[in-house]
Design brief:
The protein has 411 residues and is of the alpha/beta class. The chain is built from 17 helices and 8 strands. Helix 7 runs antiparallel to helix 8.
Length: 411
């Protein structure tokens, strides 16, 4: 089976080489739709042998992505953005998967580099080239709607998952987070779509979460609750919920409950927040996708004095994803509060190994070491914390420096 890479880009000269290098020996064709670049994006793409097409931007991501599909000629389509790379170790699994005759879509696990709360997502980015498969939705472009319609007509098609990390997404790194202006564009685009599709639970989830993020919490809660009420799995011939349909709606239900948990946490309504986090965790999706709910539930328990419950939640996080730095940090702070300083130090050190720039982990490691009388190591950790705070939080750096001075230590 042959493979086309389909991309849409604009002014991605900085990111594009890394992306294309990751697929150079994997794909048989690169189709790149440029929506108005003024930098070296097109030249870079052509240097990798890409077929480049110009497309006037209309504000609709699906329209641009569908344009790229029009020019693809291979059996399967891989979709990447310029700030993503394909993980080379997963390539043999992907090549094996696309050989399966009844596979229509292979969902890929994406690692959101720099995302603190929810570092993994599952994306429909590898699929068979089929005239019925098209992107829909102007902002969160996705093939899922057309895939669902096709499978109703041709039920032999299967949707598979690759549970190893396949894509690294760098869009959450510092400097790449959405600006307030981008939030407003997303909001207006999604509101226009929702006006035409008022009972779409996916759109309710995304727009409701955005409202909460923009501090319009009550409006966000109303929309998220409406989304939950709109989730209706299809029924089979016996009038029961179709298992495939339940599996398809579970990710949306998870997101709705997760965002409701976050919204109620903002309102300090701990019981309602915990209830929704528990409901999110119950959904039949990959465990790595639930890290945000487990982590936030642990934080909720810790704030409310349930240290044992918080410890269990954080332990679940690091069992699911040993590379989850925040889980180790939070577990460290919890076991330290329980008086287990040696365990706390071990988790802080793991968090720092995974994320060397985590100033709070260095600072709390310093506290734990000091409590054990390991003064020299403690001061070294405090020194690294001050250096990191100085770049992002100078006031905290100065506060820490003063506190140490008051205890008789000079850095």
């Amino acid at each position: 089976m042959s493979l086309s890479l389909c991309m849409i880009v604009k002014n991605e000269a900085e990111n594009l080489p890394r992306c294309l290098e990751s697929v150079r020996s994997v794909v048989d064709e690169i189709v790149l739709v440029d929506t108005g670049s003024t930098d070296q994006t097109v030249a870079i793409a052509q240097s990798f042998g890409a077929k480049v097409y110009s497309f006037a931007w209309t504000g609709d991501f699906s329209a641009a992505r569908n344009e790229s599909l029009q020019h693809a000629t291979r059996d399967w389509i891989l979709v990447l953005d310029a700030d993503e790379v394909l993980v080379k170790e997963v390539v043999p699994l992907l090549k094996q998967a696309i050989q399966q005759p009844d596979y229509l879509v292979i969902n890929l696990l994406r690692h959101e580099i720099g995302a603190v709360q929810s570092p993994y997502s599952l994306v429909s980015r590898l699929f068979r080239r089929h005239p019925a498969i098209q992107f829909s939705r102007p902002y969160h472009a996705m093939i899922d709607d057309s895939v669902a319609a096709l499978r109703q007509q041709e039920p032999h098609w299967q949707v598979a998952e690759v549970t190893e990390t396949a894509i690294l997404h760098y869009g959450y790194e510092p400097g790449a987070i959405a600006s307030r202006d981008k939030w407003q564009i997303a909001r207006s685009t999604m509101e226009a779509y929702l006006a035409q599709h008022p009972n779409d639970p996916y759109e309710c989830s995304k727009l409701g979460a955005l409202y909460v993020q923009m501090a319009d919490v009550e409006r966000g809660i109303d929309l998220l609750k409406h989304g939950l009420a709109s989730v209706k799995p299809m029924e089979n011939m016996a009038g029961e919920a179709d298992p495939l349909s339940v599996h398809a709606t579970a990710p949306v239900e998870y997101e709705l409950h997760y965002h409701l948990g976050s919204a109620y946490s903002r309102l300090n309504q701990a019981d309602l927040a915990a209830e929704h986090y528990h409901q999110a965790i119950k959904q039949p999706i990959l465990e790595r996708l639930k890290l945000g709910a487990y982590n936030n539930l642990g934080s909720l328990m810790k704030v409310n004095g349930d240290l044992s419950g918080a410890k269990a939640a954080y332990e679940t996080c690091v069992a699911i994803a040993p590379e989850f730095a925040l889980g180790h940090y939070n577990l460290g702070t919890t076991v330290r509060a329980l008086g287990h300083l040696t365990d706390a130090i071990a988790h802080y050190q793991t968090a720092i190994h995974l994320n060397p720039g985590h100033a709070e982990a260095h600072q709390n490691l310093g506290v734990a070491l000091l409590k054990l009388g390991r003064v020299e190591q403690s001061l070294a950790s405090f020194g690294r914390a001050i250096a990191l705070h100085s770049h992002h939080n100078p006031q905290q750096a100065e506060h820490l420096r003063r506190s140490l001075k008051e205890m008789g230590f000079q850095l």
